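Feature request, filed as a ticket because there's no other form

It would be nice if the structure record came with a short human-readable summary line next to the tokens. Right now we just get the raw output. Example of a typical job, pasted below so the devs can see what we mean:
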Amino acid sequence: MTIRAVILAAGIGRRLGSERPKCLLEFAGQSLLQRHFEILISLGIDEIVIGLGHRAAEIEAALNACNISARVSLVYNPDYTQGSIVTLWHLRERLATGDDILLMDADVLYDYRMITRLLESEHRNCFLLDRELEAGEEPVKLCVRDGRLVEFRKHVEVACDYCGESVGFFRLSSEIVGKLTGTAARYIRAARLDEPYEEALRDVLLAEPEAFGFEDITGLPWIEIDFPQDVERARTQITPLLMQHAD
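Raw output as currently delivered:
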């Protein structure tokens, strides 16, 4: 089965307070983008699509400076100041190829075993769930009841057995990808342009919860880079824990 990676890297990252694209931040001498490629290629992913927007030329120049063996295609979102649902919409033609995909946020520093869990999962539509959920409204939460996902949002008001934090990586079947792009189209037509793409994915999940599963990755090191303190934590706490990528 062919699986392609689609990386969302168009956002501005206002909360970080840096003009540099988040995916070009370096940890232990490697940018997040380089790490993405190194991990994905080592695990057999040889086709990667990147959604660009903010400072796209810098990201493209960084890619050109890398020796990348995978097939890489770039899609530019000129409306990158709006929600990530717009980037997803600009990617619709690259999504509608009949392949299963790994949909990935670019601003995550993570252990390669997370991607292994997605690729080896029995679930063709799979979320990653970390039970070590930080308190507050910032984390995107996954709620589980009777072993099934019942909610996926920052703000949750649903009865469940437990919640965990969602890592911004998803394995999606070609059938679900089609429904996701169809849902994104409805958001665009309704002028809901400031929404994150997770809202469209949530709609698909709640419409067909039986089609989705999750892998519990509690204990594996990772962090999403949103704030300046995340950069410091990534360098001092997360990077030393990361295992080398698969050979």
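Something like this underneath would help us a lot:
Residues 54 and 167 are 22 Å apart (CA to CA).
Residues 174-189 form the longest helix (16 residues).
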